[in-house]
Design goal:
The chain is built from 16 helices and 17 strands. The protein is α/β, with parallel strands linked by helices and 460 residues long. The protein has 2 domains: 342 residues, TIM Barrel (Alpha-Beta Barrel), CATH 3.20.20; 87 residues, no CATH class. It has an 8-stranded parallel barrel with strand order 1-2-3-4-5-6-8-9, surrounded by 6 helices. Strands 10-11-16-13 form a 4-stranded mixed sheet, with helices on one face. Helix 12 links the parallel strand 8 and strand 9. Helix 1 packs antiparallel against helix 14 and helix 12 runs parallel beside helix 14. The longest helix has 24 residues. This is Beta-xylanase.
Length: 460
């Protein structure tokens, strides 16, 4: 009788879940749960202790360092000392990198935005920038946000300097150039307020179709996901939009997720609303196969971008300014845990226990099933993510054994600046052999005998 080791692993994990966001996301069938970060934050050791743990965050996005202002502030002069900090941090800790971003209406130097360019000149400026930047990080980026926010809030193309000179050709140029330099990187169009049905989202669908018709190598659409407590799209709308993009044959990802309060201080009721909002986004992605994962736009209010951009607003992250988890964190964990258990239950129910054609011989084996994304990371040239959960089958000495699961104890907890968080320990699941009962053995033999008799009658 064949036993699904993958099913056993999922069942064991479902009974032994630790609140480690990336580990749970991968066990639920997604590629990553990640966070954005920035250089100055990495000097905070308490913050870094969580940020660098690949069981919490299997993917890192540099929030600012790779933007044009930081990498080519003067024409033709490229600087990477600042830009390299976050990718190097992620590589050291075995985390994927979503590189961000190549063409953007903001944080672009004035020598670009105020220049008077011919089409040939603008083409050369874009190609030079992208070839140098993507070339510098070749093999290090799981994906690139190639073009960021090219559609305005009314659903029209933004009148950027790139668009004024080249029209939509600047977007196809950017994708083609990036792909030519690093053909292994996933290439995304990234924008905000396209997570629910509206004119901007419809224009983005139109843009995706245009790029596909132009044979541009577009692999994914990034839904930034900057939401507001009290103005949240329904989960049904989130799924509708994600499915619409997925139906075009591209990946989907939530790339800059946060849910802000427009009035502070927030209340307990508001925190629950925020938790429900985060859970809806997580569940929507879980329900869409082409949705590969989530990136939160930093994980603590201490380093959120919101207060500096929108004075008087904030509280947008999963953790508060003291690095303590909020109800939103618990809601995300609960949604991921439920998905892991559902997946385990489905696999277990679909695994045959015994049929007339079942192979009863179990060969001695020593198999490890891992929920890490190490292999996929290696295939993209990124550093592998550390294994998070493993299931081992003990070597069998007889063909008459079935391997049941025995689970290891949960990890402990640590309190202090992190609040009450599970210690990020590796969860192991061991499998020991158990003999098949004599009755079971006789039943299988009877089935085999009936099968043989049926075969003889058929050939007579």
């Amino acid at each position: 009788m064949r036993v699904s080791i993958a099913s056993l692993a999922l069942l064991a994990l479902a009974d032994n879940v630790s609140a480690n966001l990336h580990s749970l996301a991968v066990a639920a069938g997604k590629k990553y749960f990640g966070t954005a970060t920035d250089n100055n934050e990495l000097a905070d050791s308490s913050y870094t202790a969580i940020t660098k743990d690949p069981k919490y965050f299997g993917q890192i996005t540099p929030a600012n360092g790779q933007k044009w202002d930081y990498t080519e502030s003067r024409q033709g002069v490229f600087q990477y000392s600042y830009a390299d900090v976050v990718p190097r941090f992620a590589k050291t800790n075995g985390q994927l990198v979503r590189c961000h971003t190549l063409l953007y209406r903001s944080q672009t130097p004035t020598w670009v935005t105020s220049g008077s360019w011919s089409k040939d000149q603008m083409t050369a400026v874009i190609k030079t920038h992208i070839e140098n930047l993507v070339g510098h990080y070749k093999g290090q980026c799981y994906s690139w946000d190639v073009v960021n926010e090219a559609v305005d809030d009314e659903g029209q193309y933004r009148e950027t300097v790139f668009y004024k000179v080249l029209g939509l050709d600047h977007i196809t140029l950017a994708f083609n150039t990036a792909h030519a330099v690093d053909p292994e990187a996933k290439l995304y169009y990234n924008d905000y307020n396209i997570e629910n049905p509206n004119p901007k989202q419809k224009k983005t669908v139109e843009l995706v179709k245009y790029l596909q018709a132009a044979k541009a190598p577009l692999h994914g659409v990034g839904l930034q996901g900057h939401f507001i407590v009290g103005s949240m799209p329904s989960q049904a709308d989130l799924e509708t939009v994600a499915n619409e993009f997925a139906g075009l044959g591209v990946d989907v990802a939530y790339t800059e997720l946060d849910v802000k309060f427009t009035k502070l201080p927030y209340t307990g009721e508001g925190l629950q609303e925020q938790a429900d909002a985060y859970a809806a986004v997580v569940k929507a992605c879980l329900n869409v196969d082409a949705c590969v994962g989530w990136t939160i736009w930093d994980w603590t209010d201490k380093y959120s971008w919101v207060p500096n951009t929108f004075p008087g607003q904030g509280g947008a992250c999963l953790f508060d300014s003291n690095l303590k988890p909020k109800p939103a964190y618990d809601a995300v964990v609960a949604a991921l845990e439920a998905a892991v258990k559902k997946s385990a239950s489905t696999q277990s129910a679909s695994t045959p226990t015994a049929t007339a054609t079942t192979d009863v011989s179990l060969k001695p084996t020593s198999t490890v099933v891992s929920t890490s994304v190490a292999e996929s990371a290696q295939s993209t040239g990124a550093a592998p993510v550390t294994n998070t959960t493993a299931t081992e089958t003990a070597s069998a000495t007889s063909s008459d054994v079935i391997a049941p699961v025995t689970t290891a104890a949960r990890g402990g907890e640590v309190s202090g600046v992190y609040g009450s968080l599970p210690v990020p320990t590796q969860t192991a699941v061991s499998v020991s052999p158990t003999p098949i009962s004599p009755c079971e053995r006789k039943r299988f033999r009877r089935m085999k005998k009936r099968e043989a008799m049926a075969a003889r009658k058929a050939s007579a």
